[in-house]
Structures are given as structure tokens and as C-alpha cells.
């Protein structure tokens, strides 16, 4: 029968369950990993539909988990959105995850940018070159122009040594 293991081969479901046991995965990530193991695309689609129906795989849950982990790493909203889109998460689900994060008090991007900047640098920089370095650092982390400007102005306001 199509998609059934023969001998010591594993089924797409077994492989998907093993992957999901380690961490949440998006549907696209699972499909790519299962295809790389040699499973047929039709069987993968059926398997992923069944896992979603059973609540074992959820792009919404993946987006929430991914967002939370990236906030803890100090990444900004632009970078996180881009990474979620690359992992196949629909924009509606991304927007919902961001809204829920902000409601839970996890998505204060201005404060996060300031914290990350203050952790990395001891001050705003004396020269335009040093300030530009700090701007590039935050921009590479995925913070937008307003968040970068706010962080440069306020990152060291509540420093403990002042």
C-alpha cells in the first residue's frame, strides 16, 4: 500500500511525530523534512492534514511559539515576520500571533530594542560612526527606524550606575 513502511522504513506519520516531539514545526517545514526522507508528496499532504485535524500540528501554535522564542533572543518584529513567512506561515496567522503577544505584554518592541542595545553597548556613542554602528546592530536584529531611534535615545535612561 502507498505510504506504508516496508521493513525498517518509517511512515511519514512516525517521522512527523518524531519531529514534533522535539519542537513545534510549521506545515511547510514538516513537508520539506518528510520529502527529504523520501516520502511521496501525496502521502505527506494526507499525513499533515490528519495531524492538523488531530491538533498535533498547528501553524498558529508554531507562530506563537516561534515569536516567543525570538523575542527572548532579542530579535525585532521585522526579522521575526520575515522568518515566519519563509517558514510558510500565512500573514493572518502572523498578525494574530503578534496581536496576542502584545496583549500578553510580550511585544514591547521599543523596550526590547533598548534592552538589547544597552546590553551590547555602554552608551549611545560619541561619533556619528559609533552611532551608525549601533543603528546597524538594531536594524540587523529586525527593529524598524522608529524603534532604533527610540532605543538610541532611551536605552541608557534607567541604567543602574546612573
Automatic annotation (TrEMBL):
What are the residue boundaries of the RecX second three-helical domain, all occurrences included? 58-97
Q: Name one GO biological process term.
A: regulation of DNA repair
One Pfam annotation reads: RecX_HTH1
Residues covered by the RecX first three-helical domain: 13-49
Q: Which residues form the RecX third three-helical domain?
A: 108-152
Which Gene3D superfamilies did the record assign?
A: Winged helix-like DNA-binding domain superfamily/Winged helix DNA-binding domain
Protein function? Modulates RecA activity.
What protein is this chain from? Regulatory protein RecX
- Organism of this sequence: Halomonas fontilapidosi
Q: Which gene does this sequence derive from? A: recX
Amino acid at each position: 500500500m502507498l505510504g506504508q513502511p516496508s521493513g525498517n522504513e518509517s511512515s511519514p506519520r512516525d517521522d512527523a511525530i518524531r519531529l514534533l516531539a522535539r519542537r513545534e514545526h510549521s506545515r511547510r517545514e514538516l513537508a520539506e523534512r518528510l520529502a527529504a526522507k523520501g516520502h511521496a508528496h501525496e502521502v505527506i499532504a494526507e499525513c499533515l492534514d490528519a495531524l492538523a485535524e488531530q491538533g498535533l500540528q498547528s501553524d498558529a501554535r508554531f507562530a506563537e511559539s516561534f515569536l516567543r522564542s525570538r523575542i527572548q533572543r532579542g530579535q525585532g518584529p521585522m526579522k521575526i515576520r520575515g522568518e515566519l513567512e519563509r517558514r510558510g506561515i500565512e500573514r493572518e496567522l502572523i498578525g494574530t500571533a503578534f496581536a496576542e503577544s502584545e496583549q500578553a505584554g510580550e511585544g514591547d518592541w521599543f523596550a526590547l530594542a533598548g534592552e538589547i542595545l544597552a546590553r551590547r553597548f555602554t552608551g549611545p556613542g560619541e561619533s556619528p560612526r559609533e552611532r551608525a554602528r549601533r543603528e546597524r546592530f538594531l536594524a540587523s536584529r529586525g527593529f524598524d527606524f522608529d524603534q532604533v531611534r527610540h532605543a538610541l535615545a532611551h536605552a541608557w535612561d534607567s541604567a543602574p550606575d546612573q
